[in-house]
Amino acid sequence: MYRKATRATELQECAVVRQIRTVLFVHAAVWAALGTVLVIVPGPLVHALHAYVFVFVGEEGSLFTDTASVLARLLGVASLGLAMFMVLVAQKIEATWWWSWAFILVDVGIGLVSVLHAIFGLPDNAPVLSWWLLATVSILFAVGLMWGLFKAQQDQPIIEA
User: Fold this and answer.
1) Crossing angle (nearest 10°) for helices 66-91 and 101-116
2) What pLDDT score was predicted for residue 38?
3) pLDDT digits (tens, 9 = 90+) for 87-127
4) Which of 20, 137, 141, 157 could hold 148 in an S-S bridge, CB 3.0 to 4.6 Å?
5) What is the dihedral of CA 78, 73, 21, 106, to 10 degrees?
């Protein structure tokens, strides 16, 4: 079924695996920083998205609603958990390189939702740069991981023929 990396394959010395590890560490740092900010200070996010907060959670009398802050903090906690999982996979990348597909799925999903929202979901005169930035960063992380996985698959296939 799944082959573990051995010294014979020298996968741990492979530049592509180092690339996947580097992308995962940088990706984890970005998610951890974002998650930490969301957990500690969700106010700026709630303020920046105030028009959307009322649509999704309802108006509760003030801009910094308890519900909106809690939702932002929950997103922050999930981001921290995802970053920790990325570090875990990066530490054992020689044996678990194919687990990176989970992060690609998340990145492509975030990129797709951000692009669709930027194109179709924003009200008139709403700021769009942050949505395009989020989409671009997510897609770049996905492409970096996919390139590394493509090369790693050639060196150590998941399923042997």
Assistant:
1) 140
2) 86
3) 999 998 888 888 899 999 999 999 999 899 889 887 788 77
4) 20
5) 50
DSSP state of 118: I
CA angle 104, 107, 111 (to 5 degrees): 140
HSE value, Cβ hemisphere, 13 Å, CA-based, for 126: 17
Q: Which residues contact 22 (CB under 8 A, 6 or more apart)?
A: none
39 token code pair? 């957990």
Taking CA 115 as the corner, what is the angle to CA 113 and CA 117, rounded to the nearest 5 degrees? 65
In this structure, which amino acid lies at residue 16?
A: V
- Alpha-carbon distance of 60 to 55, in angstroms, equals 11
